[in-house]
């Protein structure tokens, strides 16, 4: 098949999934055309079956705002016709599904539009009445819609008031990168003593990620056992988080690492991951950690309970319950035999439920059904 893919190319779970899906589809012989504003950050290697079409935004003086969405739709229509695409798979209903529908109507060649919902368009924009109708339109005019969790599917149906079929296809990880391995000396290079437990939080530092809860949980853990917190990522709450860490005098035990590419290496030296968000349609970072053998503690919200099974592959806590999060963390971190049991269980569940081969098969089946 010839498949076009559009996503937000900057760092973020949806961009990661779109890029990894494209790579795996290309490895299976499909021709992949990325149509994005810049090269998705995970597309770091040349592949003969992967092509990249850049969306150029022109700044005409008469327009107050550059019309990015129209430029994207135009580029999509051009690529559909030039490359004779069978499928245009877009990640996010707004604006990508809308642009794809417009492009499908403009193009001469017949193409099927697949939209994958990742969360923020529904859980944030869906609340805004100004966007609700457009999201509904984007969903109902797509040829097929998928969602990354059951929770997001239900939330979408309820919020947008649609009974349009939405299939759940879980996220996955690229096992070639995310698997258990040793990184000798990395702990030492970060000046983390061997006996110290390493807790990691990875996010885009938006308010919904509740960084103060992560810090408070770590503070409680740190009062009981020698430990370090790795904070990976950057975003609007970065400065406030730094300030909080300073006030709690945790500066030397909380490492702000900013945006990082090789998250797998950091996971290789981690014992536990924390994701205490108030909104999360899936929580891809939890899955990436699990694929490296690192269990997590997450909030009992959105799609997180579909990734972590409470008491079996990690723990779930109510939003804001940092005491409970720290108690569970200590239960894991002070018992190395239990840590090993959890490690085995998380690796097993990744293999059973989130293996890339299984998930890619599900997307291919969906594409083929549309093309019948
Ligand atoms: O979490 C974010 O702010 C980024 C956003 C994105 O576009 O990557 O993440 C969403 O999609 C990810 C991939 O499907 C999910 O793992 C995240 O849970 C989801 N974020 C939210 O729902 C807040």
Automatic annotation (TrEMBL):
Whether Nucleus counts among this entry's keywords is no
One Pfam family matching this protein: Glycos_transf_1
Q: Which residues form the Glycosyl transferase family domain?
A: 187-345
The keyword Transferase is assigned to this record: yes
Task: Give the domain of life.
Answer: Bacteria
Where in this chain does the record put each Glycosyltransferase subfamily 4-like N-terminal domain?
11-175
According to its UniProt entry, one GO biological process term is: bacillithiol biosynthetic process
Q: Name one GO molecular function term.
A: glycosyltransferase activity
The entry's keywords: Transferase
Cite the InterPro entries for this sequence. Glyco_trans_1 (IPR001296), Glyco_trans_4-like_N (IPR028098), Glycosyltransferase_grp1 (IPR050194), Thiol_BshA (IPR023881)
Against PANTHER family, the record matches this protein to: SULFOQUINOVOSYL TRANSFERASE SQD2
Which NCBIfam families does the UniProt record give? thiol_BshA
This protein is called what?
A: Glycosyl transferase
């Amino acid at each position: 098949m010839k498949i076009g893919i559009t996503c937000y190319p900057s760092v973020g779970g949806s961009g990661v999934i779109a890029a990894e899906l494209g790579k795996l589809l290309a490895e299976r012989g499909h021709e992949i055309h990325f149509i994005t504003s810049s090269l998705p950050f995970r597309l770091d290697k040349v592949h003969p079956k992967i092509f990249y079409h850049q969306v150029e935004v022109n700044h005409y003086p008469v327009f107050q705002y550059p019309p990015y969405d129209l430029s994207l739709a135009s580029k999509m229509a051009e690529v559909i016709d030039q490359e004779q695409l069978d499928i245009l798979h877009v990640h996010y209903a707004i604006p990508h599904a809308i642009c794809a529908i417009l492009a499908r109507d403009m193009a001469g060649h017949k193409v099927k539009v697949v939209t994958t919902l990742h969360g923020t368009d529904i859980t944030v924009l869906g609340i805004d009445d100004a966007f609700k109708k457009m999201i509904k339109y984007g969903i109902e005019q797509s040829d097929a819609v998928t969602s990354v969790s059951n929770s997001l599917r239900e939330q979408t149906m309820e919020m947008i008031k649609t009974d349009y079929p939405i299939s759940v296809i879980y996220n996955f990880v690229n096992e070639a990168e995310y698997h258990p391995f040793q990184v000798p000396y990395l702990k030492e290079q970060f000046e983390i003593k061997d006996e110290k437990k390493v807790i990691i939080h990875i996010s885009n530092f938006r308010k919904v990620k509740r960084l103060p809860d992560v810090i408070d949980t770590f503070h409680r853990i740190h009062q009981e056992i020698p430990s370090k917190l790795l904070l990976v990522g950057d975003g609007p709450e970065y400065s406030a988080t730094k300030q909080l860490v300073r006030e709690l005098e945790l500066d030397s035990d909380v490492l702000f690492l900013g945006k990082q590419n090789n998250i797998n290496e950091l996971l290789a030296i981690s014992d536990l991951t924390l994701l205490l968000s108030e909104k999360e349609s899936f929580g891809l970072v939890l899955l990436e950690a699990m694929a490296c053998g690192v269990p997590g503690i997450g909030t009992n919200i959105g799609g997180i309970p579909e990734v972590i099974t409470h008491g079996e592959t990690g723990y779930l806590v109510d939003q804001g319950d940092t005491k409970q999060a720290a108690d569970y963390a200590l239960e894991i971190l002070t018992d190395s035999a239990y840590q090993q049991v959890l490690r085995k269980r998380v690796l097993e569940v990744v293999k059973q439920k989130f293996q890339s081969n299984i998930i890619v098969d599900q997307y291919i089946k969906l594409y083929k059904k549309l093309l019948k």
